[in-house]
Amino acid sequence: xxxxxxxxxxxxxxxxxxxxxxxxxxxxxxxxxxxxxxxxxxxxxxxxxxxxxxxxxxxxxxxxxxxxxxxxxxxxxxxxxxxxxxxxxxxxxxxxxxxxxxxxxxxxxxxxxxxxxxxxxxxxxxxxxxxxxxxxxxxxxxxxxxxxxxxxxxxxxxxxxxxxxxxxxxxxxxxxxxxxxxxxxxxxxxxxxxxxxxxxxxxxxxxxxxxxxxxxxxxxxxxxxxxxxxxxxxxxxxxxxxxxxxxxxxxxxxxxxxxxxxxxxxxxxxxxxxxxxxxxxxxxxxxxxxxxxxxxxxxxxxxxxxxxxxxxxxxxxxxxxxxxxxxxxxxxxxxxxxxxxxxxxxxxxxxxxxxxxxxxxxxxx
Length: 365
Ligand SMILES: [Zn+2]
Ligand SMILES: [Zn+2]
What we know:
The protein contains 12 helices and 16 strands. It is α/β, with parallel strands linked by helices. The protein folds into 2 domains: 2-164 and 330-361, Quinone Oxidoreductase, Chain A, domain 1; 170-306, Rossmann fold. It is globular. The structure holds zinc ion (2 copies).
């Protein structure tokens, strides 16, 4: 069928709205009419560095919409179901079996392969597809059972979309990956969707001290409204003394959500004994972190990378929806909606720091 999609034809180029021919769903595929799709930092990272992807490529990995058609083997959803489209995993490997699908052995092929697993595009012609098993910067997307979580009737698609990646990554980093206990202290570096979702989750968990480190004043102010106890400007001076002025013994958990390697490095100046540095912001390729071994050993400091907040979407998305319903995860505060066709203007606003989370909405959604 004919669809409209936002494509990237060259590294770093603007998105172009194109008409493409989408294949019929195969036996294991599901066609979803996209109503809303979030814009995540990873979309822009791949736009700028598409690695081995076929160009043009259709990105987009926070889709939400209505199932319109399913292949013969699909049992999890049926036409008419309202769904959120998260990342894809295989369901059969050791990590999927352990409830950790974000570390699926097939994560790269299934999310960044730029095609179906047999190499065929979901589109007619040479067009990169299957980004995160969805390529949802489009009016219709082909996806898979493992991507999908059914949505309740009462949540608007534009509100739900960021749960698919950004919100679950930030909240999951606190609630699942670092599993910060009530009463602990947390510093979050970077006040975008991931960082501010982490702040809200830390508040919901009952963390005693929640520090946001972020240069944009409006985002620091928002963090204080969302539950941060302190908000620090990293460019106002040395960050370690500023954090230690709040917590002389240092911070129990540091979540690096800015993708700035130097900011991750600086955390060794203010992390507490037996503290953990969680790395979730994606820095430019080839970035390095230098672990001060004497400090790490003497004080029992841990460092770990985190994908998608260790989320198992089928389990965790309903938990996040419950937290939201209870008013304890007010992520609607982060969202600004734009018409799908205004994708480049929306990106410009996000890069300028004018909005935190862009969600693109389709006509009639
Ligand atoms: Zn797997
Ligand atoms: Zn993402």
